Amino acid sequence: MGSYNKALLRAAVGLVPQDMNLEIFDLEGIPTFNQDTEQNMPTKVKDFKTKIREADAILIATPEYNYSVPGVLKNAIDWASRPYGDNPFDGKPVAIMSASIGMLGGARAQYHLRQIFVFLNMYPINRPEVIVPFAQDKFGANGNLLDNDTKKFLGQLLQNLANWTRKLTG
Ligand SMILES: Cc1cc2nc3c(=O)[nH]c(=O)nc-3n(C[C@H](O)[C@H](O)[C@H](O)COP(=O)(O)O)c2cc1C
What we know:
Elements: H1 4-13, H2 43-54, E1 58-62, H3 71-80, E2 93-99, H4 107-120, E3 123-124, E4 130-132, H5 148-169
Parallel strand pairs: 1-2, 2-3, 2-4
The chain binds flavin mononucleotide.
């Protein structure tokens, strides 16, 4: 069925509050970071930065790799945060969710991501923690989210992100 985290993002699109519009950005195709080219970034990175800048808030779905944030996500964040002083994440509200086939559902990656948010100066939502363990039991063969508790928490996370964004920007 492909990526559980992509499936979780697709489920989120269907659960957003009425006044929220959620657009998915796929990190596929972002090359490895090279500081020598940060003044002349690849087009895909420029597009990524523009999307972040235009968004009122960010929602990140991530797996956990070796108890941490996957290199692909860290690499994309590193690109977007450069060059120094041109960080589109600065001051943005952000929510995180993770799905994993393991029993901790990517929790450790989420806490490492929160540490990264400190330097990026992002404002993360604390609750609910949308952590989806044993993802293979929560999605159908075509990637549709079946688990009602996950749907409930995900809907609440999105509502809280909308409220938090209004509080920060209102
Ligand atoms: C390199 C690698 C490292 C992994 N490390 C972890 C891990 O530390 N914790 C965990 O719960 N799952 C780990 N997994 C399993 C992932 O949870 C599983 O592959 C999951 O389906 C990845 O998310 P995705 O379906 O969205 O790609 C790892 C998988 C890979 C490929």
